Amino acid sequence: MTSFTIHDAPVHTEDERAAVLSDPGFGARFSDHMALIEWTSEEGWHDRRIVGYGPFELDPAAAVFHYAQEAFEGLKAYAHADGSVWRFRAEVNADRFQRSCRRLGLPELPVEDFLASVDELVTIDRDWVPTGQEQSLYLRPFMFARSPFLAVKPSTVVTYAVIASPSGAYFGGSGVQPVDIWFTRDFTRAAPGGTGFAKCGGNYAASMVSQQEAEANGCSQVGFLDAVEHRYVEELGGMNLFVVTDDGRIITPALTDTILEGVTRTAILQLATDAGLVAEERRLALDELVEGVDRGTFTEVFACGTAAIITPVGSLKDAEGQHTVGDGEPGETTLGLRQRLTDIQYGKADDIHGWMHRIV
């Protein structure tokens, strides 16, 4: 079993922690500790430890600054009513992290190290897991290259870390509120043969200017089309997309090497099948999506991801106009799938698929 050395660290007072947990926001405040593991080409993985949360000391020539050689993950720990804390499908995150690292030329972290780093950090920072409605401890494992050189080659020195952030709703506010999506015609997120299927910062950096474009047009999320034909819907800036039809189907773009395989996405496909819906993974043209919304054959659209869970889409917009989904309010299927998923995560429903694992 992988073991971590625990280092003494300053911690927040109970009152300071309570103030954060009373209104955690999303991804802005952090727990007392972080998990670290080092890797070098000579020693492999070593120095597994839990230390106080704090800054890294990096050489200005560290490879991550110049060539973006890094990868990351996102998952959550959930407090259950009996006081226990559980994680959701972390093994899937660990496998995806390996695929991302492989694509970025980074060393692959063993699955057991990934899971142990998460469990050790959550255990020591158990008191940072919030207990409010749909609140959780968001966990961010990440790996970055730190060799101090300016040559374009894979780093021989790497750090892996996990930090934790008590979090509430990703989009803020109360209740489940629809978001509007802007489909950009000028920018693409990823191209075939690139890093689109990997979870790495470069993909998100590529989406920032189009996210600004979306916000300038009154939308909170940007949607991307394929880089070859500029016709087919792929994913949003940070979420996968689903469509619900009037004849009991649920459609999501088929995975390619330009689409991130979302952990929530695959869970939704299973839950939709459980609910008697016919799940389709296929190419979905933006023209088909807009026409289906306008005709009413596509009755609901929603986005999904670890941070945002399942978020209904109220309208689609691009340079040619706006298209309201249904009556613009969250749909019954969307809300039903969302409730089913969160009930499993928070221990309110039977976990028939074995997705949850108790940490403490």
From TrEMBL:
<protein>
    <recommendedName>
        <fullName>Branched-chain-amino-acid aminotransferase</fullName>
        <ecNumber>2.6.1.42</ecNumber>
    </recommendedName>
</protein>
<dbReference type="GO" id="GO:0052655">
    <property type="term" value="F:L-valine-2-oxoglutarate transaminase activity"/>
</dbReference>
<comment type="pathway">
    <text>Amino-acid biosynthesis; L-isoleucine biosynthesis; L-isoleucine from 2-oxobutanoate: step 4/4.</text>
</comment>
<dbReference type="InterPro" id="IPR043132">
    <property type="entry name" value="BCAT-like_C"/>
</dbReference>
<comment type="pathway">
    <text>Amino-acid biosynthesis; L-leucine biosynthesis; L-leucine from 3-methyl-2-oxobutanoate: step 4/4.</text>
</comment>
<feature type="modified residue" description="N6-(pyridoxal phosphate)lysine">
    <location>
        <position position="199"/>
    </location>
</feature>
<dbReference type="GO" id="GO:0009099">
    <property type="term" value="P:L-valine biosynthetic process"/>
</dbReference>
<comment type="similarity">
    <text>Belongs to the class-IV pyridoxal-phosphate-dependent aminotransferase family.</text>
</comment>
<dbReference type="InterPro" id="IPR033939">
    <property type="entry name" value="BCAT_family"/>
</dbReference>
<keyword id="KW-0808">Transferase</keyword>
<keyword id="KW-0100">Branched-chain amino acid biosynthesis</keyword>
<dbReference type="GO" id="GO:0009098">
    <property type="term" value="P:L-leucine biosynthetic process"/>
</dbReference>
<dbReference type="InterPro" id="IPR001544">
    <property type="entry name" value="Aminotrans_IV"/>
</dbReference>
<dbReference type="InterPro" id="IPR018300">
    <property type="entry name" value="Aminotrans_IV_CS"/>
</dbReference>
<dbReference type="GO" id="GO:0052656">
    <property type="term" value="F:L-isoleucine-2-oxoglutarate transaminase activity"/>
</dbReference>
<dbReference type="InterPro" id="IPR036038">
    <property type="entry name" value="Aminotransferase-like"/>
</dbReference>
<dbReference type="InterPro" id="IPR043131">
    <property type="entry name" value="BCAT-like_N"/>
</dbReference>
<keyword id="KW-0028">Amino-acid biosynthesis</keyword>
<dbReference type="Pfam" id="PF01063">
    <property type="entry name" value="Aminotran_4"/>
</dbReference>
<keyword id="KW-0663">Pyridoxal phosphate</keyword>
<dbReference type="GO" id="GO:0052654">
    <property type="term" value="F:L-leucine-2-oxoglutarate transaminase activity"/>
</dbReference>
<keyword id="KW-0032">Aminotransferase</keyword>
<dbReference type="GO" id="GO:0009097">
    <property type="term" value="P:isoleucine biosynthetic process"/>
</dbReference>
<dbReference type="InterPro" id="IPR005786">
    <property type="entry name" value="B_amino_transII"/>
</dbReference>
